[in-house]
Amino acid sequence: MLLVLFVSIRTYAQSIERWLSIPLKKQMFQAMPALSWEALSSSNSEDIEINPKDLDQTIDGFGYTLTGGSAHLIQSLATPIKKELLLELFGKSNNRLGLSIIRISIGASDLDEKVFSYNDLGPGETDLTLSRFSLEEDKKALIPLLKEILKINPEIKILATPWSPPVWMKDNHSSQGGQLLPKYYRVYARYFLKYIQEMKKQGITIYAVTPQNEPLHPGNNPSLYMPAEEQLIFIRDHLGPTFKNKGIKTKIICFDHNCDHPDYPIHILNDPKASQYIDGSAFHLYNGDISALAQVRTKHPNKNLYFTEQWTGAKGEFAGDFMWHIKNVVIGAMNQGSKTALEWNLANNRQLGPHTPGGCTECLGALTISDQIERNVAYYILAQASRFIPANSQRIKLKQVPGLAYVAVKRPDNKISLLVQNENKESKQLSIKYLHKAVKLDLPASSVSTFIFKL
């Protein structure tokens, strides 16, 4: 059973709003009777004490990958339905999700209906000047949809990453696997530059790029194998200097793969010439443990961390997936220092497409779009956080209590949001303490609770 509580306090005497979610029953975000603060009369070692002055990283926010397939499906909706859906996802008022970051692919991802780059040529051809560079494929759905989203939230951050370079730059001349030929490092850096410049002409600012999606997974289609030393050289000698020389402010984020290889970003960041161009490192969690983020932060505390992808599968179980993702992707990633928590694909059809030949056949989008719109578990995972933790919140450092997982932030509106997960099979009793006040709680078994109060 999953429970969600939200607490809102405008003065110390005012009531505390509560909200309840029970994923086993798929009863999400239920309004509950209000609670009230009380004078602190006793102390328990398991109480959660809030000190809003003990702040850590700023949160960029929560979002999904807007794949080309997602964009085509959403664009196919009738205009009034599409407009309301985009407001629901990206609007900031009322019960909107308030998503504040989008990840997109540079060229095709495996959840596009076909493989493409922005510089596809015939066999044996090259284009060292990138004179045939074109965004035409993205102009069909992705770019128009991004423009509509930007009208709703002009401040939304857009993170872009390639699944593969153009095949003529690769040693195997295939969209799947292979490595980037060193003789094309410089032209590939200019490919990134041209992409950012051409998107800017469309009114779309790219906030950050990663050099490669899942660089240690060459089995996808499209994909590229890019070991750490190759990414280091590419950033240090080509991508970083190209951005600097052209005055590009887009951030470079390295790695963008699983938590079982924290050595990868550490190796790159250990090089001072490469590190000067890098904002931080990005992670997925298909292997490893979320604590890998803290390992990288310990070695390089001046570099940011980003959690950029985690899928939910069509064969998964709603409540179990919800609990795992809340613990690891939302609470876990933020507590390890991440500025973001992103789930994978925003939308699919009933056949779990579109996808490329060899692309993911079991990835369940946050939305299933057919003759109606179904909201799946990934929708609720991020709604749990994005509705109540807006961009530019700051994480509050908290002493952790055994048997619980929780994270707190100080929001820009001077309120505090606290998200608490009780994975135990029994209910848990404790208090939230702030200054000389406390609120007593009974957290049901297998539950998640969120509290919001004003300073």
From TrEMBL:
Keyword terms, alphabetized: Glycosidase, Hydrolase, Signal
Cite a single GO BP annotation.
glucosylceramide catabolic process
An example Gene Ontology molecular-function term: glucosylceramidase activity
* InterPro entries tied to this protein: GH (IPR017853), GH30_C (IPR033452), Glyco_hydro_30 (IPR001139), Glyco_hydro_30_TIM-barrel (IPR033453), Glyco_hydro_b (IPR013780)
An example Gene Ontology CC term for this record: membrane
Q: Which family does it belong to?
A: Belongs to the glycosyl hydrolase 30 family.
Q: What is this protein called?
A: Glucosylceramidase
- Native source organism of the sequence: Aquirufa rosea
